[in-house]
Amino acid sequence: MSVKEILKSSIEGSGEVAKSLMETVTGLVKEGTGDIGELFGAVIDLGKEGVVDVTEGTKDVYVASVKALEESGQTTEEAITTVTTKAEEAIGAIGEGGAESVGDAAKKGIEEAKGIVTKPFEK
Length: 123
Fold this sequence. Notes:
mainly alpha
């Protein structure tokens, strides 16, 4: 089963899409079975298909990936750097495909997610 199929099956029929998506992503990242860039690509594809909102989906993948890396021993700053790099690569691949509105929605989700994961550092 592909990462995209795993994510799709986790959210279909779920009343709480964000929670289901984040739990699945956290598990895949912690197990090492899901490449973070591939997770972003999969959720963006699901957004193109109308299964999930691209902005919300990318935000959920970002936050869950950072959380999983933190739980695996990385500092928050290291996790944010790793996840941001992977997210930008995935979004860059979309831009090459000519889907600017999807790319813009994904970028918005990433920016919103950065606000969520960096709030603990603000004083």
